[in-house]
Amino acid sequence: MIDWLQGAFESINGYLWGPPMLILLVGTHIFLTFRLKFIQRHVFKGIKLSVTKDKGAEGDVSQFGALVTALAATLGTGNIIGVATAVVMGGPGAIFWLWIVGVFAIATKYAEGLVAVKYRVKTANGTMLGGPMYALENGLNMKWAAILFSIFCSLAAFGIGNAVQANSISDAITRQVKSSFDFGLSSHVVAAIIFILTFIVIIGGIKSIANVAEKVIPAMAILYIIANISIIAMNITYVPEALVLIVKSAFTPQAAGGGFVGSTIILAMRWGVARGLFSNEAGLGSAPLAAASATTRNPVRQALVSMSAVFWDTIIMCLLTGLMYTTTILKNPDYFTGVKPVELALKTFEQIPAIGPWIITICIALFAWTTIVGWCFYGERTMEYLFGKVALVPYRVAFCIVAYIGAVVPLALVWEAADTMNALMAIPNVLSVLLLSTVIAKESKKYLWDDNLEAYSDDVIRELGK
User: Which of 38, 50, 183, 296 is the most buried (most CB within 10 A)?
Assistant: First the structure.
């Protein structure tokens, strides 16, 4: 039965994540880029706003808190193993397409964040709720699509945002302990630690999650970037060649050799675009769930902050990672012939004497754990939409239990099922930003293009539960 289900999901994903989905997402990125007059040019304004308090505005957490909560879920193993997969399967040219799709994806992330704040609601106790489901219901009167999005997101949170991440943590830690100390560490011990740490953080809701994210995410990113730049510095003489190869391979077929597998332009584009979409999650509809909680005076301010997440995740982190892998392969071509994505990541970090393997183990563990925490928030927001506040505590307990199980059992079926849920939740979300693109453009003109970012929104926040 399990084998049949896995085969069924694999077949579904072959279609869902094939050309139709890639065209839908990339097409949305490009359409919104032009519709919003290349909103990407304001990305540094978004970065500045992310660390600026918006005094007097309503919300549950700071704009920076909302940003790092979204980054907690976005920055994950996809930034390490996902980029390695793009290089191995699509060749160095995949890095170019991964980066390009990230540039255009900024527009979609902006649009998602804007409608999340514009159509959010306030509960009787003052909590802000928002996301694609509220935009679909309040902005488009499409409650059926809102319900579907919530169902798919809740299920995806258990899979791609939880069980598979816990499995990555368990695998990385047990592997490194065995390699360094020559004894086996039980996966149940790792699972118990994940369970306890996750429960402690998520039981406090968005404020607790944001508080932890504000401390862990910057430290985690700095550690990874320092290690990344250190390896690139070790391979500095290969950087010019790597940059030329990345651009050249994006537009010309590459024969196998020099540590790289053979790849066509289509393969490079397919893997680069696919990994880019998975990495930054623009269009998926997950990040707006965090954006809606932000303390902000109007939708555009938080939209600018939200879009800066793609800058950090894809434009900076994924590009550096891709350059690190490419220079390493050029420097040691024979060592990487026929390598698998996970092996590429592990061998690359081995270049840092003594501590390299531990650095990547720590990075994988932290990236994956923060993804678990971030996705729990996403899942509970959609569960609250479906069933009300009564569903929150049971959902959090169930989420921690699934994290424990994910750390100790094989997850091939869960991977496939989660990929399906991700695709299905993306469809209604993309529908909402496309159908609301006129509203998004009007809000942008009102607050951004007319240089009126300090103005408060004229919208009346919808009251819920009174």
Answer: 296
- Residue 344 pLDDT: 86
| Average pLDDT of every residue of the chain | 85
- Per-residue model confidence (pLDDT) at position 296: 85
Q: Which tokens hold the place of 363?
A: 């990075």
Residue 465 vs residues 117, 163, 207, 236, 390: alpha-carbon distances, Å: 18, 33, 21, 59, 13
What residue ranges of the chain have pLDDT lower than 50?
465-466
Q: Which residues pair with 121 in a beta bridge?
A: 129, 462
pLDDT of residue 466: 40
Domains of the chain: 2-454 (1.10.4160)
Check residue 39 and give its pLDDT.
94
